[in-house]
């Protein structure tokens, strides 16, 4: 089976396609679905409902005598066409209707299916309080993407079919029911209330939704259209804090996309136990209620704002312009992810947007290097949900950015607006985007799509520089290290700007300016020579950093220091910081410490903090620890996380002080709790007693319950670092019990994997037993956490639990993750434990060496001065 995980024809990368993957196509169309009408009556106490699904179909051909609909685990009671009963077959997955009258072009069919559903597993979810969670709200919500609508109503369930839709639903009168489009009628009937929603704009089945709950309704508006936030009662203030920018975002996106928001209202409903972050159902987005911020979380949480703009952007990219097939999902996910960058640029600054883009790029690069490499467009998979990965979201976003950089600001928006206008209320494939670009701008970007969309990978650049003072000549050598010397299959062919930087002293400030040349990079290794007036202070490769790439700069230290200080692009300063840290030594430490104090961009300060911790000299600590005073909470968090790598008693004391005193940010406190554990697990010269550390973390667990359990989850992560401690394990096991608040419980389940690798055989058995028990719970997020824990373990028994989970789970995402985790466990078994003891010895030696080298550097510095 291993060949499936290691495909040598993929430049050494694992394959995306797991065993069982096959090509997927949309089915043949019997006709055009014009309208879907669901008329449902909910019995919430029994987690069931009954009603009818009515589909109006306009046949495309004559003589079709059988219609096949997707319908999973429904009880089909009867099927009528034009009020006449029809024979049908139902196998639990597909409903096959034998038409008594074959189709005739132009003669519409009215299909009426009476059905009921009990305790559905997917598609529609019933949330209720139980004995462990008595405060859980009563809610019903749906999730169609990608192919789950068929679990709650019979339909032609693929995105190529667009129709209008209508949902009438009977619910207990204390609850509100929200659905797509406009509310056209409500009626009271005894203890029930009937809500009737209608959506006049055509859309696919996966975007049909229903959300029911005892919600507070907060009304806002944009250009006369209702903008509504639905949350559980008493969270009204958090709703405004979390979603209050929506009308301004609607204004922004309407203008950028050149098409006013297309639907009659925009609702966002925050629901409990949601299995995604958000879902862009047409005009009715569902969001996880965990995105609701309180005042303190709003301090340094941007995730919610990004989530809100992401789902809103889908109302154009996904809902107005619909992908014809899942294989083209990058068009909508890439743009929704890019809207996060666009909004950051609009709301905050260009510098923050650049940093946001770097984080997106890294998220893709991480998947590419550790999971698999694949083309962004592919129709070969086991389940469509597997496609929803870092390739189509973050890499997709980077591709949109490259299109923007290639076309320039004006032409890019003309192209995007042409694409939206020409394809509104239609379906698209990737080729339609290329065509819209060509139509609007005359530019053919097939070369870019070929390199970045239709094949996997990206360039890995190594850049070296030298200066010839006699000839006033700069030499820059660019190597594409992803390509082999004898094979140009993985080469990229791009025109890349290279800048030479100079500074100019003004009265109070120093300005920098770049002299830029664009070169064609298309070979494995190329040297470029630039005659210049004078020696540049620094070199800026890929000015603007628009290309998706990795880059390693091999310049002399003075040029790197100057770039870190003076390059106007924050991303270039970050690459310089990385290169400096690789050089090591006191001079880079000084430069990085200064940047941590002085750089105007918090993103750069975050990255500088990380790099300081990479330099294995004690002097790095002094520079780093000063960052704990940074006014930006995100920087403080990064500094605390970086301190986890400096396992000394001073480091321990600094973080302990912070944890005891507290910080305005939840996330900084959480990081401190985690870091305390990580430092204490090291080979410190003066080691804090393990009981003391556990006691401190236990007090955090007892005293700092609160928003999304962020701080307490940090304490759990800290405990998991104490891998050989039975006391830490015992404490963790307590927090995996039912009744523990869910976010904390999920974090603890994950932590069991990490702590398992240092435990005694007896304790390892206890962990496995607990995880096997937890694997039986059906909730998606629990299963994901169990898989994450098992994937870190080093015993074949973990593989067995994963296998049974993969076989039983109804969820494609869990199945895939379990398969990948099994491969991890196989790799871990045997090799890992032997390696670990070697690694520990090596760490110890390194640490002793570091102390010696640090003293030596100090002596040398003294001797020089
Ligand atoms: Zn999305």
Task: Using brief descriptors, characterize the structure shown.
binds zinc ion; globular; about 850 residues; 27 helices; disordered N terminus; single chain; alpha+beta
Task: Briefly summarize what is shown.
By secondary structure, the protein is α+β, with helices and mostly antiparallel strands.
Strand and helix layout:
Layout: E1 22-23, E2 31-43, E3 48-59, E4 66-70, E5 75-81, E6 84-85, E7 87-90, E8 94-98, E9 109-118, E10 124-127, E11 139-142, E12 163-172, E13 176-179, E14 182-189, E15 192-203, E16 210-213, E17 215-222, E18 225-232, H1 236-243, H2 246-257, E19 266-271, E20 278-279, E21 284-288, H3 295-298, H4 303-314, E22 321-323, H5 330-347, H6 350-370, E23 380-381, H7 391-407, H8 409-423, E24 426-428, H9 430-441, H10 446-452, E25 460-468, E26 473-480, E27 494-505, E28 510-521, E29 525-531, E30 538-541, E31 550-554, H11 557-566, H12 570-583, H13 586-598, H14 602-614, H15 619-625, H16 633-643, H17 649-661, H18 666-680, H19 690-703, H20 710-720, H21 726-734, H22 742-756, H23 761-774, H24 780-791, H25 796-808, H26 812-828, H27 831-864
Parallel strand pairs: 2-12, 18-19, 19-21, 22-24, 25-31
Antiparallel strand pairs: 1-23, 2-3, 3-9, 4-8, 5-6, 5-9, 7-8, 10-11, 11-16, 12-15, 13-16, 14-15, 17-18, 20-21, 25-26, 26-29, 27-28, 27-30
The structure holds zinc ion.
